[in-house]
Design a protein that fits this description.
Layout: E1 7-15, H1 17-23, H2 28-35, E2 40-45, E3 50-57, E4 60-67, E5 72-75, E6 81-89, E7 92-97, E8 105-111, E9 114-121, E10 124-132
Antiparallel strand pairs: 1-2, 1-10, 2-3, 3-4, 5-6, 6-7, 7-8, 8-9, 9-10
């Protein structure tokens, strides 16, 4: 199941990203920067079940390393750090905060040759679409 996520992914489009970032408390300048970027993702899984999700945005790189079902520290777009846990549910990689009041739920799923990343904070949802590189 993990192998479908593995590889490099290039950003194609974003939907409702500004409103989502606003719901997270991200300031206007950072929101404008985030909505004008085209990040790329690189996802790998090693033989021990350790996932690495690397996001490249311009000169900035953010890396998350985790095992499914084990809480780990994650840095959000506002620069805040919170504890999250990742699981595979119905073929989707789901990352959600341990404390539901902090952070956002992020669901990555593969549809055809695209990776759809749905981010939810409260009742605000945004999507980022990536295509396999």
């Amino acid at each position: 199941m993990a192998e479908q996520f593995v590889g490099k992914w290039n950003h194609v489009k974003s939907d409702n990203l500004d409103e989502f970032l606003k719901a997270l408390g991200v300031g206007m300048v950072k929101r404008k920067m985030a909505t004008s970027t085209s990040p790329s993702l690189e996802i790998s899984v090693d033989g021990n079940g350790c996932w690495t999700v690397t996001t490249h945005v311009g000169i900035k790189t953010q890396k998350s390393v985790f095992k499914l079902g084990e809480p780990f520290e994650n840095t959000g777009p506002a620069g805040n750090t919170n504890k999250v846990v990742a699981t595979l549910e119905d073929g989707k990689l789901v990352v959600q905060p341990v404390d539901s009041d902090k952070g956002a739920k992020v669901v990555r799923e593969i549809i055809g040759d695209q990776l759809i990343m749905t981010m939810t904070k409260g009742n605000v949802e945004a999507k980022r679409t990536f295509k396999k590189a």
